[in-house]
Structure formats: C-alpha cells, structure tokens
Amino acid sequence: MQYKVTLTPPKPVLTVTVAVAPDSAQKFSAKVTALDLTKADLQPDGNPIDKALAAAAKPLVQALVDKVPPIIVDAVKDKSVSFDLDQPIGYKVTAGDVPITLTATNLVLGTHEGHLLVTGGIEVAP
C-alpha cells in the first residue's frame, strides 16, 4: 500500500530560542519553544490495485497516523540543548610582529528586521 502524505501546515515551523550565557562568549543554549505541526493527511497512491487496497485500509491507517503529529510535537517541545564552543568567539590578528587576540564579550542575542542580531563588546589582548 502506498499513501501520499500531506502535512498541515504544508511546511511545519519549528521555533527555537537561542541564548548565550551573559558572562561568556563560549556557552550557548537552544530551546524548542514551538512546533507548528497539526495534522498528517493520507491519500491512497500508486497503481490501481495499490490505491484500492490503500483506500480500504485508509480509516485504520489514518487513525494511527493522526496520533503521530502530537507525539512528535511533545517529543521536541521544551527540549533544550546546551553547548560550549572550544574557544570564545573572536579571532587573532598580527600587527607587525605582535599577535593580538580579539574576543567577543557580553553577547546579547536579539533580532533586527527578522534576522538574528548579536551585540556585545570586544576584548583586545596581546
């Protein structure tokens, strides 16, 4: 049996909140705050025999599939992950023969016109 699956909404949206520890440019966390997936609808597909068999079994299969979206949403919603970068965000430059390290400090995440915005300071060290 073959089915064509249509999701509602057609392109489910996953919303994630990302944060950075206020005292570090290395410690980040991400948390799933929402997943917009409400339904998966089945339509029999394939050759005529497959379609006939799939149509006969559709009520049972659809009843099972109807249970999947809430399970997926519950499995990911409010899940968090934290991670540390190997080194702080920044880079090294050389001025003459002197290496200079620039490191991001006091990072704050936000948005600007729908884009991720990161603000903070820069620490300069030889």
UniProtKB/TrEMBL annotation:
Q: What is this protein called?
A: Lipoprotein
Report the source organism: Saccharothrix xinjiangensis
